[in-house]
Amino acid sequence: MWSWSSWEGESDSAKDREAKLTAPQSRRRFGWTTWMTRSSSRSYWHPNDIISYARESLKINLNQNVYLTLTDHISFVIDRYRAGMEFDNILSDEVRLFYPVEYSVGRYALEKIEERTGCRLVEDEAASIALHIINGETNLIMGKAFQMIRMMREMMEIIERHITIPEGRNYPKEKLISDLKQLANRLVSEEPMSGRKDEALYSFVQDNYREEYQIINGINDYIEVTYQCSMTEEEKIYLALDIKRMKDLYAG
C-alpha cells in the first residue's frame, strides 16, 4: 500500500511540510522511468458527470481547471489501481469532517468509476477527489488546500482542548467549522481582510470574554510560527465568540 505521508516534525515550517509519496522498498526500486514506461498507454477519463454532480450538490460554479486536474487524477488512479498500487490519504478524516458535501461527491465518483471500469478504489480516494473539487471552489493549488485543511484541524484541536464536554454529548460544530473554513482559506490564499471594524464589539469581547480571547491569541501565536500568517482582530473576535457559545452550552 502506498501512502501520503504526513508533514514531518512540528519544528518544520509549513512551507517545508509538503506531502510526500512513500512506497515499500520492493516497489521503490522500479523507479519512475519504469513506471512511466509501463503506463505509456494511459486510461483517460472525462469527469463531466462528476463535475455536474458537484455543481448541483454545492450550488456553485467551479474553476474550469478542475476539468483538467480531475481528468488527469482519475486517469492516473485507474492506471495505478490496475498496476496493483493504491494510495492512502492522510487527510481523509479531515476532508470528511470539514467538507462533507465535497466528500459525498468523491463517493459518487467512486461509484461511477466502478460502474464504468470495474475498478473499486479505496475509500480514501473519495477524499482525494474531494480535494480537487475543493480546489475548484477555492482556486487554491493542491499544496495550499492540504495546508488549509491541516490548519483547520490543528485550530479545532486546540479549541477542543479548552472546552469541557459532558460525557455522551457532542457539541454543534457547524458554526465553528464554517468560521474556520473561511479563516483558513483567507490565510493560505493571503487575501486581505475587508469590512467595517466594530471597535465597540472588540472592546466588549476583550473585557468580558478574556479566557476565550486568550485561547484565540494562543492559536494565532501557533499559526504565526507554523504557517507564517496571522489573524486579523476581527477574526479573533468572531472565533472567541464561537468558543463562548460552545462553553455556554455546557455551563451549569
Plain-language structure description:
- The protein is mostly helical.
- It has two domains: 2-139, PRD domain (PTS-regulatory domain, PRD), CATH 1.10.1790.10; 172-249, Orthogonal Bundle (PTS-regulatory domain, PRD), CATH 1.10.1790.
- It is built from twelve helices and three strands.
- The protein has helices spanning 25-28, 31-38, 48-58, 65-82, 92-98, 100-117, 124-138, 142-161, 174-189, 199-208, 210-227, 233-249, and strands at residues 2-5, 20-22, 87-88.
- The chain has a three-stranded mixed sheet, with no helix packed on it.
- Helix 8 runs antiparallel to helix 11 (210-227).
Structure keywords:
PTS-regulatory domain, PRD, 2 domains, disordered N terminus, 252 residues, 3 strands, mainly alpha, 64% helix, 4% strand, 3-stranded mixed β-sheet
Q: Roughly what fraction of the amino acids lie in strands?
A: under 5%
**Fraction in helix:** 55-70%
Instruction: Give the uncertain stretches in residue-range form.
Output: 1-42
CATH topology-level name of the largest domain: PTS-regulatory domain, PRD
Spatial order of the strands forming the largest sheet: 2-1-3
Structural class: mainly alpha
In the CATH hierarchy, the architecture of the largest domain is: Orthogonal Bundle
Number of helices: 12
Tell how many strands the DSSP assignment holds: 3
Number of domains: 2
Question: Which CATH class of the largest domain?
Answer: Mainly Alpha
Q: H/E element string?
A: EEHHHHEHHHHHHHH
Principal-axis shape = elongated
Q: How far apart lie the N and C ends?
A: 49 Å
Biggest sheet layout: 3 strands, mixed
